[in-house]
Amino acid sequence: MFLVKALCFIPLSVFHAIGKFVAFLLYHVFRYRRDVVRQNMTAAFPKMSLQEIRKEERKFYINFVDVFLELMKAYQFKKEDWVKRVPLKGADLMLKYLDKGQPVILLSGHSANWEWPAFSIGRQMGYTMEFLYKPIKNARFDKIMLRLRTKHGGVAIPKDSALRQIIKKKNEARIIGILADQLPSIGADKYWINFLNQETAFYTGPQKIAELVNYPVFYSETTRLARGYYQTEFKEVMKPPYQKGGQEIVQKFADLLSDTVARNPSDYLWSHKRWKYDRKQEQQVKGIA
Q1: Which residues are paired to 235 by β-bridges?
Q2: What DSSP assignment string belongs to 109-138?
Q3: How far is CA 240 from the centre of its chain?
Q4: Residues 12-26: tens digit of each pLDDT
Q5: DSSP annotation of 74
Q6: Which regions of the chain are under pLDDT 50?
């Protein structure tokens, strides 16, 4: 953490200059996951020309590096920095519930900067921001990331114990943040939903949690205004009562995220192997097992 604390005093403009150079190396020299990025973007946007895809790819690598450099810089931020760099739009929609003691669920995806909103939303709104996370295998790196992510008042909840923790504080007004676009493992409960031009697996967790605790669900859309400046807008997804056994919450989230990505293609996390398997491949694996 000493290194992070030292680095966070470097001006953001210097971070961004370094980031542009690192992005150049990742794209042109090391070719970090370029095949994955190309395959994902081509499948998601079949009408884009190769020239357009390449343009979006280069922008993606700059944005991708920025997320991690800005993560370190944010360690020294105060509330006024968050208000300036990640202004909130539609916060009143959630405050309408929170101010009455009602917890809310906030779904988001890996678009623009998915780290900064997790830091800033709770600080700006005056309510605790809890977020579900999967511990990193490297214990030392996991400890550093948790320190960064909880520095501004956020509370980390391991996914394996998330439901128990949420129910334990069922009536405590707070924001429960879930990055809901991650790839479920083969065999895990999932919904198959059309997302970015292809059938895509989504975790059932957000739907099941909302049905169990009857919390209203919101979508967090973060848009990059400029390097180091974003806007986070909240949109209501659904509110109780819910129809048990449906998938409407996850379906609507996928639709909203798809719209977000379509407007700003280079901001999505294309280097992730999001479409690692399809429904047919999963069925084959289950059949073998």
Answers
A1: 219
A2: -SBS-SSHHHHHHHHHHTS-EEEEEPPPSS
A3: 24
A4: 999 999 999 999 999
A5: G
A6: none
